[in-house]
Structures are given as C-alpha cells and as structure tokens.
Amino acid sequence: MNVHVPAYLRELRYHLNDPLYKNSVFIFTTRLLTVVVGFVFWMIAARLYSVEDVGLAVALISSATLINLFSTLGIEHSIIRFFPAYSMARVINSSIIIVTLTSLAIGVAYSIALILLSSDLAFVSNPVYLIIFVAFGVISTIAVVTGNIFIAMRKTLYYLVQNVFISFRVLFLIPLIFLGSFGIVGSTMAAYIVAFLFVLFILSRFIRFDFRADRDYIRNSFSYSSRNYVATLLSEVPFLLMPVIVLHVLGEADAARYYIAFTIGSFLMQITYTISTSLFVEGSHGESMKKNVIKSGIAIYSLLVPAFLCICLFGEYVLNIYGSEYVAALDLLKLVALSSFFQAIYSLYCAIQKVNMGMDSVIKLNLIMFCLFLGLSYALMGLFGTTGVGYAMVVTFIVIDLLIIGICKKEKWI
Which residues constitute the signal peptide according to the record (predicted)? Predict the structure, then answer.
C-alpha cells in the first residue's frame, strides 16, 4: 500500500538531507539550546543571587571566555579546513594537546593580571578560586575545539549532545549559592567537566589518544591558523571585553543588565553563525560555493525576520522574567537584534574567505571593526548608558558591510 506524502513534506525531507541544511539544523539546535539554557541559567541566577554577584560572575565568565579565545590559536578553523586532508587522529590529538597547554599558561597569566590590576576581581587570589578559574578556562577551551572537531566530522549530533551536558550548569546553581558570584562560575565549571568526560568517551570510539602534536599538520596549517587567530581576536575580543568595560564604567548592575540583553539579542546572531559555519564546512569538503552561498543567504534572512519581530513584540516581557530592573535594557536588546541583519553579510563573507584561504582581507575588516566598535561604545556609553553599546554595534556592522560590498565590486563578485 502506497502512502501519499504531501509535497511540502517531501520538500522538507529533501532539504533536511542536504548536508548544508542538515548540519545547520544540528548546529542551530545546539546554539538555540545554549541560548535557552543561558536564558534559564541567568534568570535563576538573577533570582537567587544579588545583581552585584551576577555582575561579577558575568565579568569572570567573560574573562574565561576571553582566555579560551586567546588559547585556541586559530586551530579551531584549521580543524574544519584541513580535516578532509589529514587523518582524524593526527588532527584531534594535535589540536587538544596544543590548546590545553596554551590555555593553562594564558589562564595563569590572566589570573595574575586580574589580581594586580582589577580590585573588583582580585578575589581570584584565593588559591581555591584561582584553581577553579584556571581549570574553567582550560576545559572550556577544549570544549570549543572538540565542538569544531564534531562539526568537521559532520557528526554534529555529538556537538549537540556535548552542549546538552554543558546545560547541566543550571542544576548546580542552588547548591553553590553559598559561594556568591563564584557559585555561578562553579556551576558552569561543573557542567563543563561532565561534558568533557562525554567528549573523551565519544572520541575514543574513533581514535586512539596519544596526546602528541603532529609536526607536519601543525607546520602545514600554521599560516592559516595564525591568520584566523588574528582575525578571530580582532572580531571577538571587543564583545568579550565589553562586560568588563561596562562593569568599570557603569557598575555591577549595568554590567548585569548589559549581559542579559546582549545574550538574548545575540540569539539572532547565532542564526548567521550556524548557517555560515555549515557553509564553511561544505566548502572545505569541495561543495559548490556559489550555490551554497545563495541557499545560506535565503535561509538566514528567512529566519532573522520573524525572530526580530518576536524580540520587538515580546522583548520587554522576556527581560521582566529576569527582574523588573532588567527591563531598562530593552532598547539595547532591540539594537543588538537589529545588528544581526548587518552581521549576516559579514558572516557569509568570512565563510567564503575561510574556504578560499583569503584571510588578509578579513583581518583588515576585523581591525576596523575592533577600533570602531570599542571607540564608539566607549563614547556613546557616556551619553546613552548601555544602550550606547547597541548603537555602536549597529553602526559598526553597517560600515563593515559597506566595505565588503566595495571589496566584492572590486573583485567583480557582484
């Protein structure tokens, strides 16, 4: 007996079997899970902990994220770009051992700098807190690398499961409340440990760990990794530094409000990140770039429009869940969401250049973004408070997009 399948379901099944969309679905689900769990995590934290504790925790977690950003050395991009050309074991073992050593060294150096330069965060001088903070930096860095390994393997389901375990951080918030702001950090750390054990188990099914760096792979990927490293630092450091800057300029309460609004608003940016990452993976495996760029652009804006409308309609209610004091960040939330429309063009351009190994133009664009965003944010923060950061974000991405259009015309892409 033949069962009639509606045309729209056949079309949906066809698209879900497309590697670009299939991997995008799992990556997007992972990012969506991260955002939703982050929403719940910070909502509970905001209810259980004081706004000052939340502000300090935001600065510490942003600092740990900054550590893993510096520690990856661009290897997470080389994993995807060179994975089809090297044995799985060589890529995985080399990547893990390098980022473990670098994140350990950078974590210790960063902690010393906090103790000497930041009176607000100097309590990491406590040996127990110091060990937790450095270990958090190391394990979260490994999580970034292993996530990219699963993406490069096209085993994005494992990437999703890894982040399910990281989501367990919500469960540790209540028992660690006696630690104050470090209870929030400790909750996240405990969840990363659980996820780390899962990653070791899964990867052991595919390779034998020998924890030796393969010199041939490192030498051949070094130029590409280093250029991506510089480009990544220039693009992400300003956003990771911003909670700390807001903390020092405007205080703990505004730092908490900024972080919550940015976390919710940047959900839209996860849409562009997800699809551009899949574009990068498929291009690295030799798939047609022109065809996939068009499909990626259509998919991104088809999702951004309804998501932005939801932010505009329900943003105030969402912020109010965290507490009435967070509603003051509504304008910032809307501006962050709006900036995702302009950030999409930038993300697609970066994916194309990663496949083409043309990172020099990306580095130049990111240097402009670095200076423009930090400079405008600092200036506008004095006039508009945290909302000034949102204005700075929108203006920065508009300028970058105009430069990208100029580059594309010069290269005769359009």
Answer: none
Angstrom distance (rounded) from CA 145 to CA 153: 12
Q: How many Cα atoms within 13 Å fall on the side-chain side of residue 270? A: 19
pTM summary value: 0.70
Residue with tokens 């697609």: 348
Do the beta carbons of residue 331 and residue 383 sit within 8 Å?
no
Mean of pLDDT over the chain: 80
DSSP 272-316: HHHHHHHHHHHHHTT--HHHHHHHHHHHHHHHHHHHHHHHHHHHH
Task: Return the number of other C-beta atoms located less than 10 Å from residue 29's C-beta.
Answer: 16
Domain of residue 232, residue span:
7-410
Looking at this protein, which amino acid is placed at residue 246? V
Asked whether residue 355 is assigned to any structural domain, the reply reads yes
The number of C-alpha atoms within 13 Å of 303 and in the hemisphere containing its C-beta is 21
Tally the domains of the chain.
Answer: 1
Q: 1 lies in a domain?
A: no
Q: 65 in a domain, yes or no?
A: yes
